[in-house]
Specification:
Chain lengths: ~110, ~625
């Protein structure tokens, strides 16, 4: 019961951030498993065995690093543009440090 | 010389940006402006300041040297970066910015102080930031000085200045024992960074980061094109790499048939054919043969073992050279991969010290975690995450950084795979492979002036990191120690003066400390990032996402994380006699620090009183 009240007390913005946090952790697990798992199986070849190549790189690099890297970029773009929600960040407590509007901060 | 002009133009632009930043910030409140750019950083600035600060001397100096030394396995080692833009940028950013705004904090220790209503938590965090960040500063100063030394090597006024400085500092303890060229470059680099950081503050750092991020991206793409065209394509580079075997290290004497008429000096890096066999070595240090002598003192050298390289290098040896190399001691071979063709194409990669090879599976997994989570736990990145303007800025930056990192890091792997083929024998000073490659590529392409821009890329990476770290350390001292504990009522003028002074003093202390730098740049960088990540990652995750975290749990978490790193490095040192980590069960100490830190936070928070309700309401409540 207490747990339920605690959840209800929490702000929408905080709960959204926590949801995104969990998604990011899950994504990390997927790519860590892919890269480490694939390379643990295929990146080690015995002495004298030929190493096959794709696009000029060893095949294990292509499937175990380059390809997941490309997918990871796409997932990041989807996460940032679709899954992640805009939330109010709140006003400065200290008026001395209030964020000015306009183009400040851009070179 | 034209390369130096290009490089000089780059430096002038950096100073102009600092001056403009100083002008732009004049109307703002000093402390918030100087240390956090008034929390108004927009899309381009936020994305590039993050990317540029992340890509430090480690990425542009240490990482290339590792690719060169160990081959394609480095693609796996760095593979964790595929998800870094999401994890390191997204995991904490939104909440950090929010809590920073609610509390009005300027620094990370200050944010923690407000979050837990505890001055002790803030002070503890300050000590840890200053301690570990200082190691980062040292590493970046070393990298900056090395790049300058490569650029200026052989330029006459510079060589004269080096001799003059050596004469000037010869009698000074500590300073006089440093190499003249390194000392001069360190001095010039330190003064440049300190001046523009002190003058422009956070806004100058961010603006120069944007320019430096662009220079880095352009530099890498240009190098990629030049490297691939000169090596004959990636396929050819990989095939050639597949035929290579690791070099050997051998003490030699240079022996001639007749006594030298005058003193003969051969510089470091000279190629010498071997006596009696079909072989060639490269000098690790300069050597002098005295007049009247037929042989040199014993000197360390690198022996090339790949047949095709021996043939092509033998053709390059100076025909007038009358000396041959004769082995004068025991040959030291690679502990893993000696004489093995194809070792540069597969895991675990050749290793000089480890019989198990460079990268085991557990260590690879550790690094996949390390790059992401240690990155998220770095106070220098956290500060940037407190400074972006709004969440659309964060989301779009994530997209930009993802593409940017994909291009830059994968290109670096390809470039320095080609470097093994184009620049043999760089194992004598592997940390210099990046600037050496830039010089070689542009020289071969007939555009030597472009070397200045290419060398500006790693230099930009180093500068954009060192300025951020410098500001972080000085903000810790001014804001978290002086304003917090010594003089809370300090006037803006006093704070301003102190901020400038502290930035200058910390900068020069960092440069002074690194007059005799440790041998391995990358080790120092990994130690500092592991230490900071260990101290701050889990405490910050709990502080932002678990309302029940208590101040005592927070201190316990920071202490457990930092201590784990120190202990594992101490054990590593005691076991090998060299600065390096101990890998318990093959895992990097950072992984253990996360485990111990999490346990400490949970145990101490749950065993004490829950935090006050108003804290929960303020930082976690509605909306």
């Amino acid at each position: 019961m207490r747990e339920s009240n605690e959840t209800e007390d929490l702000g929408t913005s905080f709960r959204q951030s926590r949801k995104e946090f969990k998604f990011m952790l899950a994504t990390w697990v997927v790519f860590a498993a892919w890269t480490t798992g694939y390379n643990a199986l295929f990146a080690h070849r015995g002495e004298g065995e030929s190493v096959s190549m794709i696009l000029g790189m060893p095949a294990w690099v292509a499937w175990g690093v380059a390809f997941p890297w490309g997918i990871a970029i796409l997932v990041t773009i989807w996460f940032a543009m679709v899954y992640m929600q805009d939330t109010p960040l709140g006003a400065e407590e200290d008026s001395d440090t209030a964020a000015p509007q306009g183009e400040e901060g851009k070179p | 010389m034209t390369a130096i002009v290009t490089f000089g133009i780059y430096m002038v632009v950096v100073f102009v940006l600092a001056w403009l930043a100083n002008r732009a910030g004049k109307s703002k409140v000093f402390v918030s402006e100087y240390f956090l750019g008034s929390k108004s950083i927009g899309l381009w600035a936020f994305a590039f300041t993050y990317a540029a600060t992340t890509a430090s001397g480690g990425s542009f100096m240490g990482f290339p040297s590792l690719i060169y030394t160990h081959g394609w396995v480095l693609a796996w080692w760095i593979g964790g970066y595929m998800i870094v833009p999401m994890i390191a940028l997204g995991l904490l950013a939104k909440r950090l910015n929010q809590v920073g705004r609610i509390s009005g904090a300027i620094t990370i220790p200050e944010l923690l102080k407000h979050r837990f209503k505890s001055r002790l938590v803030g002070q503890f965090a300050t000590v840890l930031v200053v301690f570990f960040m200082f190691f980062f500063l040292m590493a970046q100063f070393k990298a900056g000085a090395q790049i300058m030394a490569t650029l200026l090597e052989g330029v006459e006024p510079y060589e004269r200045a080096v001799i003059g400085l050596e004469q000037l500092t010869g009698g000074i303890p500590w300073v006089g024992a440093a190499d003249g060229d390194y000392l001069l470059c360190l001095l010039v680099f330190a003064i440049s960074v300190i001046v523009y950081t002190t003058f422009g503050g956070f806004r100058a750092v961010v603006w120069t980061d944007v320019m430096q991020g662009i220079v880095m991206g352009l530099g890498v793409i240009l190098m990629l094109i030049l490297a691939l065209s000169q090596v004959g394509g990636l396929k050819k580079a990989t095939e050639t790499l597949g035929e290579m075997t690791p070099p050997r290290f051998v003490p030699i004497e240079l022996v001639g048939e007749l006594p030298a008429e005058t003193e003969v000096r051969l510089p470091r890096g000279s190629w010498i054919p071997m006596e009696g066999v079909d072989g060639i070595v490269r000098l690790k240090n300069a050597v002098t043969i005295a007049a009247g002598e037929t042989a040199s003192p014993v000197v360390d050298a690198l022996q090339i073992t790949t047949e095709s390289e021996i043939r092509s290098l033998s053709a390059r040896v100076d025909a007038a050279l009358v000396y041959k190399a004769v082995p004068a001691g025991e040959v030291e071979t690679y502990a893993y991969g000696d004489g093995e063709k194809g070792v540069y194409l597969r895991a675990p990669g050749p290793s000089q010290g480890s019989p198990a090879g460079f990268l085991g599976v557990m260590l690879a997994l550790s690094f996949f975690a390390f790059w992401n989570f240690s990155g998220a736990g770095q106070p220098s990145y956290m500060v940037r995450q407190m400074a972006f303007r709004d969440t659309p800025t964060l989301r779009r930056s994530m997209v930009m950084v993802a593409i940017y990192f994909g291009v830059v890091y994968f290109s670096l792997i390809v470039i320095f795979t080609c470097a093994r083929v184009l620049l043999p024998g760089m194992e004598i000073y592997p940390d210099r492979v990046m600037p050496e490659m830039a010089s070689a590529l542009t020289w071969n392409a007939g555009v030597p002036w472009l070397a200045g821009l290419l060398i500006a890329a790693p230099f930009a990476a180093v500068m954009s990191s060192v300025d951020s770290f410098l500001l972080l350390v000085s903000s810790g001292i001014v804001r978290d120690i002086y304003q917090e504990s010594i003089n809370p009522n300090a006037s803006e003028k006093q704070v301003k003066r102190l901020s400038y002074s502290v930035t200058v003093i910390v900068g020069f202390l960092g440069a002074f400390a690194v007059l005799h730098p440790p041998q391995f740049l990358q080790h120092l960088i990994v130690f500092a990032s592991a230490g900071l990540g260990a101290c701050f990652l889990m405490p910050m995750v709990f502080a932002l996402y678990w309302p029940r975290t208590s101040s005592i749990g927070m201190i316990a978490g920071m202490l457990a994380g930092g201590t784990t790193i120190l202990v594992f490095y101490l054990v590593g040192y005691l076991r090998t006699g060299e600065f390096g980590e101990y890998l318990l069960l093959g895992l990097h100490p950072f992984i253990w620090s996360v485990l111990f830190s999490t346990t400490a936070i949970l145990a101490f928070s749950l065993s004490g009183k829950p935090p006050e309700e108003d804290v929960r309401e303020r930082f976690f409540g509605k909306p």
